[in-house]
């Protein structure tokens, strides 16, 4: 189990991209640290705040105690002494991860590693297919231009990311292979081992939330907007009809009457469908729907016009 816990820690540190306090790790991951060796290393973090050493529930500010020591004041525990070990943080050596992943996939050493920015790397080519490693799946889905930058002719691309919190099925179309870091790789003998996909007798089910029309799914019932929510946002039937109608005008500013007529709805204007009702205040679903509308639709209030810039000609995205 030590190797399993060690790999779980590697995946979590990679997905987060930032150091974590050692005293925040569960006991199983702490026990697995010796197995990882140099893959995970101590690092310096902001020592002005720590997790309360007593209850380990609250992030608290650290003060000098006037005697050369340090202490914090927890809202539940009161004054608590802070030792040097309470601020120790751990970080993943990402160069180690990149090199071990290349070895696991059989990528030729002459291929360099390209940093594509914002948590995405091209590790090289495996079996003539470019391999991308990313901190999260939404980043790649939201910026399909990344795939165009590494695609070779009409060949396929392999994308590796930590597994999202919400199962996505098969997020890409034909020619794309997505692999979950936690499921298709493991830590073994000081290195990383690739786990081949088991044969499946059932057809692959395409995720209904897969972006097809820009950030929207085929039926406009889902939108992938990482800046609003890390997981795809689901819309009601009426909201999806409004979004589909706005999309059909291809970015052109249009009156509310034309939009609602095309959507087949009786509301006076598109925003009516996205208002948060009193009974839904504080609920994440309606809040995400409202925020998505604000991010996608531009309103000219005086003229009474509405437009969806991402639907403009030339910006339509096909995830195939």
Principal-axes geometry comes out as: flat
Report the structural category. Answer: alpha+beta
Largest sheet: 5 strands, mixed
Low-confidence blocks of residues: 314-320
Radius of gyration: 24 Å
Strand content: 15-25%
Order of helices and strands: HEHEEEEEEHEEEHHEEHEEEEHEHHEE
Integer average pLDDT: 85
Number of helices: 9
> Which strands sit side by side, in order, in the main sheet?
8-9-10-11-12
Termini gap = 39 Å
Share of helix, binned: 25-40%
Task: Describe the protein in words.
Helix 1 packs across helix 2. The two termini are 39 Å apart. By secondary structure, the chain is an alpha+beta fold. Strands 8-9-10-11-12 form a five-stranded mixed sheet. It has a four-stranded antiparallel sheet with strand order 3-4-5-6, with no helix packed on it. 27% of the residues lie in helices and 23% in strands. The longest helix is centred in the N-terminal third of the chain and has 15 residues. The C terminus is likely disordered. The protein has nine helices and 19 strands.
Note the main attributes of this structure.
alpha+beta, single chain, 320 residues
In short:
The chain is of the alpha+beta class. It is 27% helix and 23% strand.
Detail the topology: elements first, then pairings:
Blueprint: H1 2-16, E1 20-21, H2 27-36, E2 40-43, E3 49-51, E4 59-64, E5 70-74, E6 78-82, E7 89-92, H3 94-105, E8 114-115, E9 120-126, E10 129-134, H4 137-142, H5 145-150, E11 157-161, E12 176-180, H6 181-184, E13 185-188, E14 191-194, E15 222-223, E16 233-234, H7 237-248, E17 254-255, H8 256-263, H9 284-296, E18 298-300, E19 305-307
Parallel strand pairs: 10-11, 11-12
Antiparallel strand pairs: 1-7, 2-7, 3-4, 4-5, 5-6, 8-9, 9-10, 13-14, 15-16, 17-19, 18-19
Helix pairs in contact: 1-2, 7-8
